[in-house]
Specification:
single chain, 355 residues, alpha+beta, Phosphorylase Kinase, domain 1, Aminoglycoside 3'-phosphotransferase, Chain: A, domain 2, five-stranded antiparallel sheet, two-stranded antiparallel ribbon, 11% strand
């Protein structure tokens, strides 16, 4: 594993027509070096396709939707591009946007080009070349949380982002939406979540605030400074960014937060290095967020369960495709077990909340 995150070979069927991309790009970067770039593809993520275009004098990233999808909806390149372009002025860890292409004649889909942020991306495990002390791990943890807090404190109106989401009523919309999505993809071998859905609907609070939320905040969506790896120099993957409740986002963050004391399926499916000595526990994250923001949280259990149920629905959407033979990816075969593990954690959280 390389210390600096690198692209790899292009997956079969996901090749770029780089000649057309290069010709389209040159008017936006008149000093672009002669010749075609070296093209590689990033393997992380399960949504939009991401490529590195390495020229002699420019290091760039191209983002496009998977084949067969349309520009609008879940893979809206125009929206993702403009969100980052607007945020850059008030949130420096966003990449520099270069250009957006909506001409289907170039590669058959919308895409955009941004500058590559060279650094370390902390995935399930830190790179073997990176050795961090417990104190450094804690600093990495709190610095990452500080970037999340900074995002939540942006004046979205001053940044021109009023149209990013519907705003007030976010909590209710989220619970109703994820309940509907889960029920549509339920299979016989996973829990119904009916009791948990009822509990969430009965306990849905009014929004605590409205702010810009990333909506997929994980360690593998941040880029660390190679020289000072506790420092965050980039935040990636703004596909799901919107206006929403910051406490709902915090609940989503902790739904992926596998701590050292966790056992079983959830530990085995860990996606980020939150298990390392020095990382805050989930309870400590909530306390840290409260201390740094001054927010009052009256019923944290709701946000925790809401975040977990959202992940359960996402996992089930993927498993449903496997169950109905819409994909044969063997990685999805046992996703139903993850769903049961999430259900148990939801139940434990609700029981503890009731005392």
């Amino acid at each position: 594993m390389a210390l600096i995150d690198q692209g790899g070979s292009i997956r079969h069927g996901e090749e770029l027509d780089i000649e057309k991309v290069d010709a389209w790009l040159r008017p936006f970067l008149p000093d672009l070096a002669d010749g075609l770039p070296e093209v590689t593809q990033y393997s992380g993520g399960a949504s939009n396709w991401t490529y590195r275009l390495k020229y002699a004098n420019h290091d760039l990233i191209l983002r496009r939707p998977p084949a067969g999808t349309k520009a609008k909806g879940a893979h809206d390149m125009s929206r993702e591009y403009h969100v980052q372009k607007q945020l850059k002025a008030v949130y420096p860890v966003v990449a520099d946007m270069i250009a957006l292409c909506t001409d289907q004649a170039v590669i058959g889909s919308d895409f955009y080009i941004m500058r590559r942020i060279e650094g370390i991306i902390p995935r399930a495990n830190l790179p073997k070349e990176l050795t961090m002390s417990e104190a450094e791990v804690r600093q990495l943890c709190t610095n990452t949380l500080d970037q999340l807090i900074a995002l939540h404190q942006i004046d979205y109106r001053a940044a021109g982002l009023e149209s990013l989401g519907k705003g007030d009523g976010y909590c209710k919309r989220q619970i109703d939406g994820w309940c509907d999505r889960y029920n549509k993809v339920h299979t016989w071998n996973v829990p119904s979540y009916k009791g948990i859905q009822a509990w969430l609907k009965e306990n849905t609070p009014a929004d605590s605030a409205t702010c810009v939320i990333h909506n997929d905040w994980r360690f593998d969506n941040v880029v660390l400074d190679p020289e000072h790896p506790t420092q965050v120099i980039g935040v990636l993957d703004w596909e799901m960014a919107t206006l929403g409740d910051p406490l709902m986002e915090l609940g989503n963050v902790l739904s992926y937060w596998t701590q050292a004391s966790d056992k079983g399926v959830l530990r085995k499916t860990r996606r980020q290095p939150t298990h390392l000595a020095g990382m805050l526990t989930r309870d400590e994250v909530v306390k840290y967020y409260k201390a740094k923001t001054g927010v009052q949280i009256k019923h944290w259990a709701f946000y925790e369960v809401a975040g977990l149920f959202r992940v359960a629905a996402i996992v089930q959407q993927i498993y449903y495709r496997y169950y109905h033979k819409q994909t044969d990816n063997p990685a999805f075969k046992y996703f139903w077990l993850i769903n049961w593990a999430i259900w148990r954690r939801c139940r434990q959280t609700i029981r503890a909340d009731r005392g």
